[in-house]
Amino acid sequence: MEFLQKIAQQLLLVVQFILVFLFILFEEIIWEGIAKPIYQTIASLKVLQTLEQIINRLNRHVVLIVFTLLLLGVEGAGLVAGVFFVQGQMLLGGVLYIAKIPIAAFTFWLFKVSKSKLLSFNWFAWAYERLIAGIDWLKEQEIYQKSLQILLQIKTKIKSIFMTVKNRYFSKESRFTQELKSFYRYIKNFKNRKKND
Question: What is the pLDDT of residues 168-181, one digit of tens each?
Fold first, then answer.
């Protein structure tokens, strides 16, 4: 019996690690790096200010239907992209996943704009509260905190390496940049001489 408990604990730890990894991957890389800038761009568009006024006048049931359709479409695209990844079709899966990000950002904007209407449905408010509670619980877990620290250390090292390479090879004063400019001038002069001949 003790053996089965140890196996169950190990399996739980693996599942927990996978969930934490996926959540951090989504939050730190996909949301912060890609989706949030798209969301901010979408939110700043003047067209959406007009659309926001229209949404505020819409019936809450219509808003729920539009939001649900968009959310199902985004999640469906994510699942199909996952299937493509599993089948080894990385390019197709990547293209589909990247294509869904602007729609996901728009869906998030729609939720933010119509949150009060959507939360007026008791079942929606209950599901939203459970989702937020689940995310809060996950963030409180020790494995999440440790994984986040490791990811931040990796990000810091990658940034440091990137800055070192940038400063060494691509600063205006670097020898590499000077040689590139010199080579460019040579090619440009060579083309001009050919034209003149």
Answer: 666 666 676 667 67
